[in-house]
Amino acid sequence: MEYFLQQLINGLTLGAIYGLIAIGYTMVYGIIGMINFAHGEIYMIGAFIAVIGFVVLGAFGVPGVSVALALAIVLIISVVVTAAYGWTIERLAYRPLRGSTRLAPLISAIGMSIFLQNYVQLLQGARRKPVPPQIPGGFQLTSGGGFDVSLSYLQIIIVVLTLVLMLGLTWVINRTSLGRQQRACAQDRTMAALIGVDVGRTISTTFVIGAALAAVAGVMVTLYYGVIDFYIGFLAGIKAFTAAVLGGIGSLPGAMLGGILIGLIEAFWSGYFSSEYKDVAAFTILVLVLIFRPSGLLGRPDIEKV
């Protein structure tokens, strides 16, 4: 039971990170019907900015004075920079292809993903970048059979921050003018433009919000694992996309649910079977869901009115 509880905590933490990345996928798809395969690389860029930020702040002794201040500064810088990346990518790689066939922006997204991977590799090198532990400590929940169940402060921060961002984004979508514009564009972009919605600005803002959430996930994963490289965006992006499809792409609660499920599947499979096949287990679950429920767990099937 103690081992099960520890794997549950680990799975929820990992799932919260996947959920943050998956929200970016599902927001973009919900509005323009396109999978932004470069989203994983935005997450990777956010992680690298976090590493650079902690190194620079460490040179000035900021983490030694206040870890909370250092974390806040790194989060703000990472969100601002990656939001700028998201806006630029939408303007350069996706907006010119908005009126073309659905295949063209998909190819552009894959090309942008490859470009960003190599761009970061050339700038930062191919070696892994370590980060010293910034938030040590935690709670020991229980102990039994020579096994201690621990809950670290960082795991608490990751889960709580994810819940706060999820609730805040849900409020924005449901209660604000921007949210109404996003929902209008998701239903019919042509009609939304006719009633005065700035479709281009709404889509750009959606990319910026998704990139900001990916930046937060990048900072959290940097603190959680303590090491990153230029390739982490590809695998995390594929898993987050899997989470979005599993939960029901186009649904924000579905993206978070899918992320948590993928995290739990990986944690329990690694704990009770073999960690080498945890990705196979996650994608097998995805295939089964697509076979028996193609719209995902919380998604709604598209109904075409004629």
Automatic annotation (TrEMBL):
<dbReference type="InterPro" id="IPR001851">
    <property type="entry name" value="ABC_transp_permease"/>
</dbReference>
<feature type="transmembrane region" description="Helical">
    <location>
        <begin position="68"/>
        <end position="89"/>
    </location>
</feature>
<protein>
    <submittedName>
        <fullName>Branched-chain amino acid transport system permease protein</fullName>
    </submittedName>
</protein>
<feature type="transmembrane region" description="Helical">
    <location>
        <begin position="280"/>
        <end position="299"/>
    </location>
</feature>
<feature type="transmembrane region" description="Helical">
    <location>
        <begin position="101"/>
        <end position="120"/>
    </location>
</feature>
<keyword id="KW-1133">Transmembrane helix</keyword>
<keyword id="KW-0472">Membrane</keyword>
<dbReference type="InterPro" id="IPR052157">
    <property type="entry name" value="BCAA_transport_permease"/>
</dbReference>
<comment type="similarity">
    <text>Belongs to the binding-protein-dependent transport system permease family. LivHM subfamily.</text>
</comment>
<feature type="transmembrane region" description="Helical">
    <location>
        <begin position="153"/>
        <end position="173"/>
    </location>
</feature>
<keyword id="KW-0813">Transport</keyword>
<dbReference type="Pfam" id="PF02653">
    <property type="entry name" value="BPD_transp_2"/>
</dbReference>
<keyword id="KW-0997">Cell inner membrane</keyword>
<keyword id="KW-1003">Cell membrane</keyword>
<keyword id="KW-0812">Transmembrane</keyword>
<feature type="transmembrane region" description="Helical">
    <location>
        <begin position="42"/>
        <end position="62"/>
    </location>
</feature>
<keyword id="KW-0029">Amino-acid transport</keyword>
<feature type="transmembrane region" description="Helical">
    <location>
        <begin position="12"/>
        <end position="35"/>
    </location>
</feature>
